[in-house]
Amino acid sequence: MTLSTGAPVAPIATHDLLVFLLQVALLLLLAHVLGRLAGRLGMPAVVGELLAGVVLGPSLLGHLAPAVSAWLFPAASEQFHLLDAVGQVGVLLLVGLTGMHVDMGLVRRRGLTAAGVSAGGLCVPLGLGVVAGFLLPRTLVPHGTDATVFALFLGVAMCVSAIPVIAKVLMDMGLLHRNVGQLTLTAGMIDDAFGWFVLSVISAMAGKAVSAGTVLTALAHLAVLVASALVIGRPLARRALRSAAGATEPGPTVATAAVLVLLAAAGAHALGMEAVFGAFVGGLLVGTSGRADPARLAPLRAVVLAVLAPVYFAIAGLRMDLTALGRPRVLVAGIAILLIAIAGKFIGVYAGARASRLNGWEALALGAGLNARGVIEVVVAMVGLRLGILGVEVYTIVVLVAIVTSLMAPPILRFAVARIEETAEEEIRESEQRGWIGGHLVRPFPEAGGRGSGEYRLVDERGPDG
């Protein structure tokens, strides 16, 4: 209904509000329960959170209790858009947090080796994914979607990695201090940045005839976004966060960081690019400002990881239809895409690592770590579904790839790292992470920007027992 100018907008209907509140509450409750269960079983929490949506969606509840499912999740687009709005805020802040935690000092120190590893891990699966996109049956490609855009999008989905999942796996396994752990994180950061960049270009091409003009326009918009971030965004972020840091409570810092991420996302979206890329850039601005105290950002991280992100991933699971895999053509395509995703990443990373003069076990460990798609692949799949590039069948397959690759990473990583001898440098790094070296309290010697240089300075000679 179109309202006349100046007329008040009617509030949400009572029934619609009731359904929305029940949807969010049930999705969050089940995502929390299944996420914790997944954690106890040694799986990433995102697996349980996605499963929450699968349970409440057409894959299970829609078949067991169709009347209940129709009432709780009606087909009306307006009702589902309410959930989408909450989910979009959640994923933008989640991606922004990922950008905030990118260690640019680490990228500078290990950038050359990591770039070689990342190049192999990006090019091989990207190429195989594009070829697979052209070879898939046209019945799996949504009507009206350009074949080139679909193939490129599938290639991006095959080549991304998931920094949040990788970091959690390395942390749980006590491998953050190992060289292979540091390299995995750095290469994953490069993968993430490349993934958001290409995703933005493809998103700008969606719905348009693919030509040199559309590609050049997308690249021009990307250049405008990056230039704006450097010239306007960086000083703005520093001033805003410096002002917020003057408050005694963390609230102003949390709000400022969230506003910067959302504004960057809005700017990218206004330029015709994907909003998640803008959110990533906004997170980088916050993280590299030198004014964002991690302790003050802890409340934002807690709310995003405990509330908004689980709801988003449950909504992603809600859109999956596992019954589609019962059709032979979809099942065969799913198995083929899964094998391409796993083999492409392993072969590419292994080749890049060997070319960078790493040994075979280090190359295998890097391949296992970077094969975990997790959170990022789910975000990419949701973008494809929203833009109409992916249908429900291929969307379901891509999300399953994210789950399977995240589950297989820890055991392979554990097997490979057990055969890599720990170096003296790694022992020092492990002690530094604990805060002590040889009974002495130490801290990283700071370089410009507040990042560690890899050198250490003595703080207290008394040792932990004083």
Task: Give short descriptive properties of this protein.
3-stranded antiparallel beta sheet; 466 residues; disordered C terminus; 2 domains; 18 helices; globular; mainly alpha; 4% strand; Na+/H+ antiporter like fold; 73% helix
What does this structure look like?
With 466 residues, the protein is mainly alpha-helical. It has 2 domains: 89-293 and 328-417, Na+/H+ antiporter like fold (Up-down Bundle); 424-460, no CATH class. Helices cover 73% and strands 4% of the residues. The protein contains 18 helices and 3 strands. It has a 3-stranded antiparallel sheet with strand order 1-2-3. Mean pLDDT is 80; it is low at 435-466.
In short:
This protein has 466 residues and is mostly helical.
Can you lay out the helices and strands and say which pair or pack?
Elements: H1 14-40, H2 45-56, H3 61-64, H4 66-72, H5 77-100, H6 104-135, H7 147-159, H8 163-172, H9 179-205, H10 212-245, H11 251-270, H12 275-287, H13 294-318, H14 328-355, H15 360-370, H16 374-387, H17 392-417, H18 424-434, E1 436-437, E2 440-446, E3 452-460
Helix pairs in contact: 1-2, 1-13, 2-13, 5-11, 5-12, 5-13, 6-7, 6-9, 6-14, 7-9, 7-16, 8-9, 9-10, 9-12, 9-15, 10-11, 10-12, 11-12, 11-13, 14-15, 14-17, 15-17, 16-17
